[in-house]
Amino acid sequence: MAEGKTEVKVSIAYAKLLSVSTLFVLLSVLLLSPSASPQAPVPGSNPPENKVEVPKDTLGRETPRGAVLGFLNAAHKGNNEIAVLYLNTPLRGSDAEKLARQLSVVLDRRLPPRLNLLSAKPEGSLSDPLNPNQDLVGTIDTNNGELSIFVERVDRGKSGMVWLFSSKTLKAIPDAFQELRATGQDVFPEFLVRTRIGNISLFEWLVLIIGPPLLYLITALLNRFLNLVVGFLRRKIGNNPNLPQPELLPKPVRLLLLALAIRWPRSEIGLSLLARQIWSAIAFVIFVAACVWLLILLSGGIERYLLRQVQNRNLQGIASVLRLTRRVVDIMLAFAGCLLILFYFGVNLTAALAGLGVGGIAVALAAQKTLENVIGGISIILDKAMSVGDTLKLGDLTGTIEDIGLRSTRIRTLDRTMVVVPNGQIANATIETLSARDKFWFHPVISLRFETSPAQILSIVARIRKLLFECSSIETDSVRVRFFRLGAYSFDLDIFGYLFARDWNHFLEIQETLLLDIMDIVKQAGADIAFPSQTMYFSRKLDEREELPAAVLTPAPKSALEKTATKSA
Predict the structure, then answer these.
(1) Is the dihedral angle over the CA atoms 138, 142, 146, 149 positive or is it negative?
(2) Fewest CB atoms within 10 Å of the CB: 13, 165, 243, 415?
(3) What digits encode the pLDDT tens for the residues 198-257?
(4) Of all residues in the chain, what percent carry a pLDDT higher than 90?
(5) Angle at 287 between CA 258 and CA 260, to 5 degrees
(6) How far apart are CA 201 and CA 183, in angstroms?
(7) In this structure, is residue 455 part of a structural domain?
């Protein structure tokens, strides 16, 4: 019962929403139509050329649409004398009025609701180049085949060129009128049928107001019934009473059913052409809204499926790109739906699309940096240049990535501070990913004192090389140990090799062990590690009476044969 009450409340809310949306569409048509925004002349511009002004018809017969709507308006008001003026017939008096009434009934009962497609131009639609002064209003089915309803442009002298129902069409109207059968309106009180508001009977207004919510409630009840039946069978067959209730008819599908269901009362109840035109407009708006809604739900399902695939492959950064892509697709779907609805109501979309293009360029220029960062973020994520958890070096910045967004990337530095870097800068920078290396470079330079003999050096080199080859964590093909340089104050040994380690801390642990072993090797060979030093030499002249010391600062080994002395400052 609670669910039924909920459905009733939804139907009532839907009726209110439908009324508001219909009002909004009508206002949009009025505001966006070319006639609502006349262009003022530009001051200083050349005046337009004088054109022959077409006489304005008081009955609105200058265009095919105006002629059809004017005839229906006069016929619904019972002004048969005025309705006759829209017919191109030689009949006069009561015969002409009878023909006008028959035409009105045939149009109301049988003509397809396509008044929005009628041309609103004085020259017509020009759809048939062989008959430029003739426009098709619609086609109805009769026992003798299809009957085309035409309006034709006729010269009325001082009244100018006006559009009237063609004489060929009017000849077939009496036979089409005889084929009409009784409709649902015949069983309703005369008061509801005769009372009109805006050329639409009160009966038709009641159908318009009550019909859509009632039909939607029927689809909701149908959905509830199908869910109960299918859910019961599903739990019975699966032998699992905890299976959830399925949703066979989601709301977009119900709206599609509603749009299709509107066609039945439109043709069976016998609504007038204007009422059926409103029904068609409502059905079209509901149909477009339901299709857009279904496509948006489909895009959401595709996004969720791709997110599951991304999570299984540990590609978390792509989630932001998928989310942005879905939002863009949803906006484009909604925009396309709005364009279809406006086009259905005859709004000229050329100016709107041109203005939208200019506005898009302005927005793109204003948000140039933001778009640069977003595009940079997309390129970083798709290129897989880095991922969350990587330790990298970006210029003078070294830290660990904590989040990669569409606009910026957050990096946790070694000082434990958070740095937010725009993706546009990262996309154009050189990135060194420290955590992506497969092995670590072990490259110390050992400096020995000048007192070290060649035999000691050869012994130290051989033992260090043996130490590295016996280490299980080193790549043996990369090992190199050489005495490669006579330094300023030492003999230098170059040690080279690549270590395999889990991370930086593990590498430091292995390196620490190797360095301590190398120090033991140097100590066992009787040598010492050199340190920066300087040697000062003093020499005495032959004449002892002139004791003028000459001091020369020259770097030299301490094992020289000359006499040396150290002089303090």
Answers:
(1) negative
(2) 415
(3) 666 676 777 777 777 887 888 888 888 888 888 888 877 877 777 777 777 888 888 888
(4) 16
(5) 40
(6) 15
(7) yes
What crossing angle do the helices spanning 93-110 and 64-76 adopt, rounded to 10°?
Answer: 100
Which contiguous run of DSSP H or E holds residue 104? helix 93-110
Over range 175-199, report the average pLDDT: 65
Our CA dihedral for 315, 320, 325, 327, rounded to 10 degrees, sits at: 150
Strand partners, 492: 447, 485
pTM of the full predicted structure? 0.57
Q: What is the CATH number of the domain that holds 401?
A: 2.30.30.60
Phi, psi at 58, each rounded to 5°: -70, -20
Flag whether pLDDT at 61 surpasses 80. Answer: yes
| 339, 375: one domain | no
Domain that holds residue 426: 368-436
Query: Which residue among 317, 346, 366 closes a domain?
Result: 366
Could you say which DSSP state residue 87 is in? B
Helices (H), 156-243: 167-178, 190-194, 202-238
**Which of these ranges, 398-402, 403-407, 449-453, has the smallest mean pLDDT?**
403-407
* 441, amino acid identity: W
Residue 410, φ and ψ in degrees, nearest 5: -100, 125
Q: How far apart are CA 309 and CA 330, in angstroms?
A: 21
The answer to whether 534 touches 507, Cβ cutoff 8 Å, is no
Confirm if 537 and 549 have CB atoms less than 8 A apart. Answer: no
Q: Report the DSSP beta bridge partners of residue 482.
A: 494
Number of domains in the chain: 4
pLDDT at position 33, please? Answer: 40
Beta bridge partners of 141: 146
Q: Taking the mean position of all CA atoms in its chain, how far away is CA 346?
A: 27
Which pair of tokens denotes residue 382? 């798709």
pLDDT mean over 473-502: 92
Gyration radius from the chain CA atoms: 46
| 296 token code pair | 């948006």
Q: Is the dihedral of CA 379, 382, 385, 388 positive or negative?
A: positive
Query: What is the sign, positive or negative, of the torsion defined by CA atoms of 359, 361, 362, 364?
Result: positive
- Residues 109 and 74 grouped into a single domain: yes
SS (HEC) of 479-519 = EEEEEEEECCCCEEEEEEEEECCCCHHHHHHHHHHHHHHHH
Considering the domain architecture, whether residues 477 and 413 belong to the same structural domain is answered as no
Token pair of 53 as six digits: 């002004």
CATH code at position 456 = 3.30.70.100
Do 292 and 268 belong to one domain? yes
Pairing status of strand 536-539 against strand 550-553: antiparallel
Q: Are 285 and 21 in contact (CB under 8 A)?
A: yes
CA 279 remoteness from chain centre: 32
* 291 and 309 together in one domain: yes
